[in-house]
Amino acid sequence: MHLKWIEDFIAYAETRSFTRAAQQRNVTHPAFGRRIKALEGWVGVPLIDRGSFPSTLTPEGERFLEVATLVAGELTDVRSDLRRRRTRDGQVATFATGRTLARTLFPILHAKLGLARPKAQLRLLTTTVHDGLIMLADDAVDLLMCYAGQGASIDVDEAEYERALIASEALVAVATAEFSGSMPALDKGRTPVRILAYSDHMALGRVMRGAIARSPLNGRSDVVFETDMAEALHDAALQGLGLAWLPQRLVAADIDAGRLVRIDTPVGDIPLEIRFYRKRRNRGRAVQAVWQGFLEAAAGL
After folding, report:
1. pLDDT surpasses 80 at 51
2. What is the CATH number of domain 3-86?
3. Does residue 80 register a pLDDT over 70?
């Protein structure tokens, strides 16, 4: 059972409308209905009488609503209190980003932030884009930095969220020199090419697969390894297991040292944006210091 199911149920009880409650909870109508069904499955009895119009709560639903309201309220209060303590009453900004950006761009920006604003206090969490957006919406984090590109758009309410373009990035095709020498011609023929790929649910995975699908390599990709970690893909490329598209900042040192070489493919470099998000109403001193400090640091890259 998830807390969001209880919050969904309370939203329905307040509006007595699946459509308005779904809008209030920022989910689609079908998804909202499935979550209510899941809650009823967990409770074991119907909570909403769908035989009447408009639908109403069953007697069991009325009883459950009393407890649900109390539980949700207490959990929200406890969560807010614990978060305030963790962030030392707003003196620490909580920052979320992916593992790759935590290794590549974040340390550079953080170092510049420390020089310009030595009193700025920051807590870093690594997560996926999807989970990071959920945490941002739930106020579990104050700031989010993530990749975006064609096939991996991020749809947020511009009235509620502020975003900034931090930097440009590219996925570049790399492999070991030994693997490169054994590859079939990439600009002609139909021989499969051994590809190292991101999982489909990753933003980088959707960007990479979309770019390949639009290129002459479409239909020739023999995915021999798939992972949800760019670092694991990086390691596989260093092992000579296949051709990989990796963030340029992640492989720059390997290219300079000759451990990996750039491969000229029909796909070319795949452009990415690195974006910064926060809620517009989140104007605490710590959050403002980190937001502005990172924008200034990024301007000097």
Report:
1. no
2. 1.10.10.10
3. no
Spell out a b/e string for 39-73, using b for 16 or more CB atoms within 10 Å of the CB, else e.
bbeebeeebbeeeeeeeebbebbeebbeebeeebe
| Cα separation, 246 vs 269, whole angstroms | 10
3-state per-residue secondary structure call for 76-106: HHHHHHHHHHHCCCCCEEEEEECHHHHHCHH
Whether residue 214 is predicted with pLDDT greater than 70 in this model: the reply is yes
Distance CA 186, CA 12 (A): 56
> In the numeric block, which tokens belong to residue 191?
């021989």
What pLDDT, in 10s, does the model give residues 196-209?
999 888 889 989 99
Residues 212-231 have a mean pLDDT of 91
Residues 6 or more apart whose Cβ sits within 8 Å of residue 140: 83, 94, 134
Cis peptide before 54 (omega within 30 of 0): yes
Contact 28, 52 (CB under 8 A): no
Domain assignments of the chain as residue spans, ordered by start: 3-86, 89-301
Whole-angstrom Cα distance, residue 106 to residue 25?
32
Condensed to tens digits (0 to 9), the pLDDT of residues 259-273 reads 999 999 999 999 999
Tokens for 148, please give them: 């975006």
258: left (phi over 0), alpha (psi -120 to 50) or beta: left
Q: Is the pTM of this model over 0.85?
A: no
The answer on pLDDT for 1 being more than 80 is: no
pLDDT at residue 122, rounded to an integer: 86
What is the third-level CATH fold of 89-301?
D-Maltodextrin-Binding Protein; domain 2 (3.40.190)
